[in-house]
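Protein Record: Sequence and Backbone Structure Tokens
======================================================
Scope: a single protein chain, as residues and as a discrete description of its fold.
Tokens: labelled as protein backbone structure tokens, with as many entries as the chain has residues.
Position: the record begins directly beneath this header, with no further notes in between.
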Amino acid sequence: MNSQVKGTIAGILSASAYGCSPALALLLYATSFDAANALFYRYLGALVLFLPFLLVKRENLLLPWRDFLKLGIPGLCFALSTLTYFISFGYMNAGISATILFLYPVFTAVIMVLAYHEKIRPAMIFAIVLSFAGVVMLHGAEAGGLSPIGTALAVISAFTYALYIVAINRTKIIISNNKLTFYLVFFSVATTAIYMAVSPNSAIMLPHLPEQYLYIALLAIVPTIISLHLMNISIAAIGSTATAVLGAMEPVTAVALSVIIFGEHLSFYLLCGIALILLGVMIVIVGQRFKVWYEHIHTKYLNHLASTNGKKPRKRWRWKS
């Protein structure tokens, strides 16, 4: 499979899997679990389920101390993003929180431009604008005002998630996707445990109902192990900005599950918002395919120029992606 196609599919599936977390979290909250406990058991369950898989594959989990410290920054950003995201559910509708979280492609693009001077193509800018317009339309589907605390938490979640995407893409270490996923989950467990230890409003709870174990297992597998692994593949294949925009499937999934499971009203604004976001995703997919063709043509042309007059070039041109 072409790396661009593989990265695009992985990005869409990763966002869709992550978009399941609000519905699963709300189902767990209904059994008297709070956000911190839900996250702690989600990540702890992910470690328990993922570790045997790594052992079967004989994955070497040892990591040099320097690389461990380098992974600390993206690991902390990811943990803070999910923690603020889950806490925001207590202040506002989870579907609305998911749409605010989708601001992270904008933050990602701004960070890449300001910090790394990345050039953003017009098609990518147009896709971001369309996706953001879709988020605005989804907000219009919610009656009443938004909670300032919930909105602030969701915005912090979006910003720290963007930092995670950029940081993990810029971490110059050689590590497999499986090992990377393991350590990100490990940092998330540690961060959530520290939060519960210092927070006066949260204490460790033991699950005692069958449905609690079910929801914890689903949270550990779908929006954690599967989503993280696919996101790492997508970032490596198509880059941070494209992966961030493909995350448009995240709020679409969250809203769809809220309609199906919790009976939320499917309004005109909701349909328009979903349509705009999907259009933005399709522009990204088409834009990436066009980029591959464009680079291929230029590579062949420049190689031809370099080999004229019967002189064989010492080094072939490689287009910088």
About this structure: The chain is about 75% helix and 0% strand. Residues 27 and 215 are 7 Å apart (CA to CA). Residues 268-306 form the longest helix (39 residues). Confidence is low (pLDDT under 50) at residues 293-301, 310-321.
